[in-house]
Specification:
The protein contains 10 helices and 7 strands. The chain has 2 domains: 6-141 and 197-279, Rossmann fold, CATH 3.40.50.150; 145-182. It is an alpha/beta fold. The chain has helices spanning 16-34, 53-58, 70-79, 92-97, 117-127, 144-157, 160-182, 209-218, 237-242, 247-260; strands at residues 40-44, 62-67, 85-89, 102-108, 128-139, 221-228, 268-275. Strand 2, helix 3 and strand 3 form a beta-alpha-beta unit.
């Protein structure tokens, strides 16, 4: 099995490296428990596969990335042509009809977009192989991310957000031109891969910890492990934390704050779920 893939990414205010490190740790634990060197993994809601799907495939696992957003899947297929990695646009119900099963299912930042998240959990429970596990990550519906998103929507309505972002983008373009002019080597412009292209899908669920526990129990799962992801993230915070040259240190402090502060204060949560005995057929 290859080494951790998390070191290949710079951290962000959204804790993408911390998420991958956590998923890698939980994946290794499931593989050890099942006595397997590689797992069959489903990443449902994979987006373009940058930060979870592709790294898990690089670790030697057989990974299927599924998303309902066709442009994201097309981009993922273009970026990551690996023999042990498949991307497709499909519904979970289709995987049931194909009698597919997986040792591990990752469902990251998906439940908050679903009108009926319990139905999704029920289908994923059916897709798990005996001894398998489910990784769920989802934002705190009343944490910093959702709070700053509400602030952004309010400022957008009165035009302030557009002005602020215009200033930020103008400064970035000026800095890029300055770097280009001072550098003798011409390089192609870079861009941050955010892991998805579907910017139109908004949140319809705003979870608290208690509601998630009730949802997991109703779906036939128990929490085997959990971890807070990051304390502060969202619109405006992401820009502010990127400004200092020591931003990576700030990101680590932000991640650590989520670990030491009450779990309910985190901006985003990560859970390792296992089927309960009553749900195992």
């Amino acid at each position: 099995m290859a080494d951790s893939q998390a070191r290949n990414f710079p951290e962000t205010s959204y804790g993408i490296v911390k998420r991958l490190e956590t998923i890698e740790t939980w994946t290794a634990a499931v593989a050890k428990r099942l006595g397997k060197s590689s797992l069959s993994i489903l990443d449902y809601g994979c987006g373009t596969g940058d930060h979870v799907t592709y790294p898990l495939a690089c670790l030697g696992h057989g990974v299927l990335g599924v998303d309902m957003h066709e442009p994201s899947i097309q981009e993922a297929q273009r970026r990551y042509p690996l023999p042990n990695l498949v991307f497709r646009t499909d519904r979970l119900e289709s995987l049931i009809q194909e009698h597919l099963n997986f040792d591990l299912i990752v469902c990251s930042e998906v439940l908050e977009h679903l009108r009926e998240p319990l139905d999704c959990l029920g289908i994923m429970q059916q897709l798990l192989s005996p001894g398998g596990a489910l990784v769920i990550t989802t934002p705190n519906g009343y944490g910093s991310y959702e709070m700053f998103c509400r602030l952004q929507r309010g400022l957008t309505r009165i035009g302030i957000d557009q002005i602020a972002r215009g200033v930020v983008h103008a400064r970035r373009r000026a800095r890029a031109r300055s770097i280009e002019a001072s550098s003798p080597v011409k390089t192609s412009p870079s861009h941050d891969q955010v892991g998805f292209l579907n910017f139109e899908s908004g949140h319809v669920q705003f979870f608290r910890v208690r509601r998630l526990m009730q949802l997991f129990d109703a779906g036939g799962f128990r929490v085997a492990d959990r971890r807070a992801r990051t304390f502060l993230c969202g619109p405006y915070i992401d820009v502010l934390l990127r400004l200092p040259p020591f931003r990576q240190a700030l990101y680590r402090i932000n991640n650590r704050a989520a670990d030491v502060l009450p779990f309910a204060w985190s901006a985003d949560w990560m859970f390792l779920l296992e089927p309960t005995e009553k749900s195992v057929v």
